[in-house]
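Residues determine shape. Take a concrete instance:
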Amino acid sequence: MIERAPGICPLCGAASDCAAFPYATRWQGVEYRYLDCGGCGSAFVSPTPSERTLLETYEWEAYHQRHYGIPVAERASDERMLTALAQAGYGAGRILDFGCGSGDFLLAARRRGYDGAGVEYAPSAIRGARARTELPVTSLREALTSSDRFDVVHLNDVLAHLPHPDELLASLCGLLSPDGVFAIGGGLERNHSVVYGAAVAAKLVRRQLRLDGDPPEAPPTMLVRTDARSQRSFFLRIGWRELHFELYETGWPYLTANGDAPRGPRSALRTTIGAAAVAVAETLPSLRLGNRFLAIERPGPRR
């Protein structure tokens, strides 16, 4: 048996070599396993993808056009975040969208009166977002060396894609105005929900019946899969103060952003499970069920 070096959890720094159920993927000849973190309960990718692999993964054509290629006038998560910011007293001002992708949030923020700018990773993604939004979109290096300061730095579906989220967030603190805040949203793929329970049960059945094949041939875009408790603990660990935290359910991936199930022979069942997940989470909030979070955080004292 080949011994593998333990991986390091990006959220809490704990080491682990315990394979997580039921995640694994293979890309360009490398098998990426997800390991269970005994420190915070998250699952994280091991080995960590190389800088070159990450750049190739997040090219405009390979990632953003594939996953976000259809224009959406008002994505529910964007509107939810903008409403929360307004209620927290940040309903206007300068906003930086880190990991702006196809620019949907920047366009939604502009409709609300914000002065927006974006940051992207791959050069093709920078060009694509800039052309689509007609707003300033740059690399992180350019943003950090500029004199621009922002009232809000927004990250949506970004933290789970970062090999070193604490280091990245520390660097972004320098882009905030003195009273600025971070507005962060994302998936909670290990949080309790009807969809998560159904997915794990289905995977168990497939494994018992030996219907599972080899790991899928796909890049490891999700470097961390976590739950609400671990996500909040991460913000606390890096010294941030929580101004607002919201847990909610969308039914994804059994429901799309429009509330429909992806097409296929099991679409009716998926629709039912996804709709049930949303209904149960909204009807019984005390259970803390949900697959997404929204947080407004203020960093600790500047060093």
Observations:
- The chain is about 35% helix and 25% strand.
- Confidence is low (pLDDT under 50) at residues 70-74.
